[in-house]
Predict the 3D structure of the following.
Amino acid sequence: MLLQERKDLFLMAIFSFVVLSAPILFQPIGAGYPDLLQKFAIYGIFAIGFNILFGLTGYLSFGHAAFLGIGSYAAVWSFKLFTMNVVPAIFLSVIAAGLFAALIGFVSLRRSGIYFSILTLAFAQMSYSLAYSVLTPITNGETGLQVRALLKEGQTRGLLDADIRVIDSFFGVEEFGIPITNFFGLKMSGWEGFYFCAIILIIAFFISLKIFRSDFGLMLRAIKSNQNRLNYTGINTRPYLLVAFMISGMYAGLAGSLLAVTDPLAGAERMQWTASGEVVLMTILGGAGTLIGPLIGAGIIKYLEQIFSSINNYVLFTFFDFLPVELQVLVTKLTSLFVGEGWELTLGLMFMIVVVFLPGGVVEGINRIMGLFHKRKRKEDTTTNHKAQPAE
Amino acid sequence: MDVILLQLLNGLDKGGAYALIALGLTLVFGTLGIVNFAHGVLFMLGAFCAVTFNKILQLGIEKPVADTGFGFTPPPEVMPYVKIWFGETWGDFIISSSVPLSILLTVPFMLLAGIVIERGLIRFFYKRTHAAQILVTFGLAIVLQEIVKHYYGANPIPQTAPDGFSGSVNIGAFLGISDTLVYPWWRLVYFGFAIIVISAVFAFLQFTTYGMVVRAGMNDRETVGLLGINIERRFTVVFGIAAVVAGLAGAMYTPTLPPDYRMGMDFLVLSFVVVVVGGMGSLSGAVLSGFLLGIMQSFTAVSSYALLVFPNASEEVRQGAFFKLLDFVDTWILFPGIDQIIIYLVAVFILLTLPRGLMGRAGVMED
């Protein structure tokens, strides 16, 4: 036990170090700028939260983007109504997403397996459609919810077009144009924004680590390996599942609010089910059920998205300069399918390859490679480790 | 009365598409035990078969264009081969009916595509978890979508119904009810087509020996295998058939909805819900719930029931209890946009009250 704690401490230290020095560490691969790193951190949080549900309990939710969207909406409303300070926004988002998750989870968790996936998918699609149509007074429909300039005296504009920001006005904060989000005066843009997200990521990771190591986490794993047996022993598993679902929903809400912090805008397309699919992919790619896997997955996908979608035909053509001209044209044509607009093709292919060949994700891949070096030492260990299968 | 009939027709038309996709989905569930998230994309591929066929028909010899002398050349006129081969009138007829004729391309292509997908990818996933199946087919769906997007662009490509079917038909006059019941021809055709395809699939499974073996395999795969029948090969063919059904549904739907690369995914989510409501593994359940949900969707799309039932109600009727009830429903339940979510609401309700769906068989996809 003590050994485990020391190991965790070590892990946390390494993790914090990597996250905080990310601007330098990721410089060589061209990712050392705040926008992208921020995305890593935010989607990392999203994936960590999803992993608490999917990785630990094996319940595959296909509607997690709904919580992300709700978090964003709640945060933007907090910016509009109360203050541009991010702290209330984050609290409000997490609470809103948690409540919403409790509601959806209470209904969806009555079923498991594929039915659970479809129920969550149905709820997410429902929220998406509602955000587009009926809830337009709250969500501003297709345009998306935005932070606007303060409502001036004598103006009669709706809350969607003008903000009141009660707390900021009370303290007499002066605004010129459309304000930027701040953390008690510290502007949340550029590197400050990244470090804010990074610190939240470290906290989120720490909480997830604690959940993994706790009795609660153990119970969730037990649900994954054999829920029937748990039921037979007289344990009601549903409360545990509901709490796990709520926690992961709150993580998604947190990620959503951070998205709003970096760019105070919330749109319904954030809730679409392809967005839910993306977080599933991140988790699987990195390794579901592992601590660090989802983060790696989120990083890889966001990085590839950035890199691949920015490559165009000209870049490709010059890259294949060493080939004879005819071949160069041909190869450029073929590879252009996978980059730029078509980068999602690469994403889909990656998805398939990972599911087919590497069900445990990148982390399993690393373990396998490590296993090759320690083959003789740990022969028994590896054979027992790979038995865990996600439950249905 | 005619407004109600109109809504019913609307529902049947959309329900036809849902039923066709859900039929294929549930066939694949029932036989292969695969949760196929790429099924919607097969629908989309079918639609693009129609687009491609149309493009093929338009191929022809470019007529030389006279130079106008203004430094501006008009786009070259194309004389399609079909017109050269079949003459002007027949050529025009063939080109205008490219959508129904595209079945000629859709059936073999989708059959091939289905078999290739099953043999090349899906068969490795029989023994994997449903989560893994969902994920790999989801990946496949993205890949196919992106390939289509690369070649056809992201914008919808409108297709036209054949000349004779492009307008509307006055059903009211035909049935002798009223003159106001006018409905697009093609959507009627689509409904009839859906019925034919569904019947064909059922007939195939019910009345042929091949179909009998497939049904036996759905019930007890192992025993059929023990009898020395290569059930796996038959299931491959079933996957092909499911793909063909989805493809046909897509190809024929193009005049109603201009296809773009995303349409498959939009329909997929709905058809999954349809399958779940109908009951996993139940073919008739899928068809029934497809039509039911289609009708339900179209009936929640109306703005007011009170006006629907009593188009021009007198003051006396307005005071009646029934009118008041309808009015209450209008104000409190029928909010705009409910047609977008009614299917999901129904699904949630059904899943919680009837765990097996409307007509689900015992033992299929049970937890």
Remarks:
- Chain B has a mean pLDDT of 83.
- The first strand of chain B starts at residue 60 and ends at 62.
- The first helix of chain B runs from residue 2 to 32.
